[in-house]
Amino acid sequence: MNDFDWAALAGMLELEGEAHSPYVQQAFEELERLVPAPRRILDIGSGPGVAACRLASVFPGAEVVAVDGAPELLALAEERARRSGVRLRTRAAAFPEGLTGLGPADLVWTGQVVHHVGDQQDALNRLAGLLAPGGVLAAVEGGLPARCLPRDPGFGRPDLQSRLDAAMAERFSRMRAELPGSVAVTEDWPGMLRAAGLTEVHSRTFLVDRPAPLDEGTRRFVRRMLERQRSIAEAVLDAGDVTTLDRLLDPADPAGVDRRPDLFLLVAKTVHFGRRPRSGAEPAGA
After folding, report:
1. Domain count, the chain
2. Which of 75, 82, 112, 231 has its CA 20 to 30 A from that of 175?
3. Whole-number Å distance between alpha carbons of 111 and 271
4. Strand ranges of the sheet holding 105-111, from the earlier edge strand across to the other edge
């Protein structure tokens, strides 16, 4: 999983984890129903540990292990665990080739990680192979793009975010095609979990709804999100949209994202759940 310098994105990943916490909280409520008393939990692709620390808080009796390929991010996860007063172990491992030997786990959580590897079905097979009999995999993939601005922000051409969506979708498709060993697959995530040998498969979509006015942490995340989108999409946006983004990102502009009172964050995240059978056939990755 080498398409980004994840350590360089640490600050944005932490802000994203905090800003997106409402959907994570809702997903963990579903996990409490599915796995009431897990003994061992793996957060695969944990990044700086925002979700892993919440898992440790929700399931204080479990051994929670944050797994990531970037030691710098694991160091941040350890520091967050100390600040939060939760028990958290960390393990450096590349995804997905470094997963062998990490199991068994009663719960495996992975947030927006699988789409960063060429063979997504193989990655899901390996994740399913980490589960103990009866264990649950929860994989965050898909949902709806973020919205943070009025359709007409008061300057520039209206509906900027729809054009940003199109540019980011094109960049995503190009990223997928350029990954080593990229395999085209119908992204039917429930079907892919079933192909990995899991049962009781279902999907739920959870909302992050942070209305205006935003708290400062979420406002900083929105800024970082738009900065990143600008850097990725600049080459395909027209000059007028780039100018609009520059004004939105100007800290001195009263209509910029640092000051405007109507800034909000609305995004939907889909979590796909599946359980390893308690007996019978092994998951495809076991």
Report:
1. 1
2. 75
3. 8
4. 89-92, 63-68, 40-44, 105-111, 131-147, 265-275, 199-210
User: Amino acid identity, residue 234?
Assistant: E
Q: Which amino acid is present at 67? A: V
Which CATH number is 53's domain given?
Answer: 3.40.50.150
Higher pLDDT, 7 or 155: 155
Residue bearing tokens 């800024």: 223
Condensed to tens digits (0 to 9), the pLDDT of residues 183-220 reads: 999 999 999 999 999 999 999 999 999 999 999 999 99
What's the pLDDT tens digit per position in 49-70?
Answer: 999 999 999 999 999 999 999 9
Encoded amino acid at 175, one letter: M
Is 2 inside any structural domain? Answer: no
pLDDT at 118 over 90: yes
pLDDT 10s digits, 83-107: 999 999 999 999 999 999 998 999 9
Secondary structure string (H, E, C) spanning 152-175: CCCCCCCCHHHHHHHHHHHHHHHH
Q: Which of 60, 62, 57, 106 is nearest to 80 (CA)?
A: 57
In a domain, 160, yes or no: yes
